[in-house]
Amino acid sequence: MLLHKILRYKAGSILLLLLLSSSMLVACAGNMREQPHIVPYEESDFFPDKLSARQPPAHTIARGQLDDDPILYGPMGTPTPSQGSASASQDVYPFAITKEVLERGQERFNIYCSPCHGRAGDGNGMIVKRGYKHPPSFYEQRLINAPASHFFDVITNGFGSMPDYKAQVAPQDRWAIIAYIRALQLSHNATIQDVPADKRGELEK
Q1: Contact yes or no for 186/88 (Cβ under 8 A)
Q2: Where is the secretion signal located (predicted)?
Q3: Is 93 contained in some domain?
Q4: pTM value?
Q5: Is 165 left (phi over 0), alpha (psi -120 to 50) or beta?
């Protein structure tokens, strides 16, 4: 008799446990994904204009797109004649120019700039060999004297027959390219005396 009661008690406990487990599985149903929703570009009866895609409020800024750094995102262009010109030593960059930045600038330069300007920056790119207009050399004095903001403006907005590259080249990469252009300009007429003393031996080998 006692054994029978024990078995009935265990069976009831197991049944109760199964019922509780089953009730928890209700939350795993996929009903949430089956709720009413709007397919992109589908007409909506909720809004008077029937458009499901809503126009963002005026002055809405996407996350990460504040672009509030005046140097990184929007330098003021080249100086006016009354301001004179700027040399590479007077350039202002939004971040420190490191070896990694120069290597990134070289990579982006070779991809986007060298087809026209040549890998050496002398304007003898592949397009010239195909009969297109010869772009200026970065070693022209006016471009050596031009401030870094001039190059940023040209990359961003284009100049003459050069189209803009703002869609292809991010602001950070534009500055990296400019830093690499400055390195090309500095190396063009450099002498062994311009190389740090501890590095000269590597060049003289």
Answers
A1: yes
A2: 1-27
A3: yes
A4: 0.65
A5: alpha
Residues of the domain holding 166: 70-192
CATH of the domain at 185: 1.10.760.10
Residue with tokens 């265990």: 10
Q: Tokens in use for 159?
A: 């100049």
Q: 65 in a domain, yes or no?
A: no
7-41 pLDDT, tens digit per residue, is 555 666 677 677 766 666 666 666 667 777 788 88
Check residues 3 and 146 and name the one with the higher pLDDT: 146
CA distance from start to end of the chain: 102
Number of domain units in the chain: 1
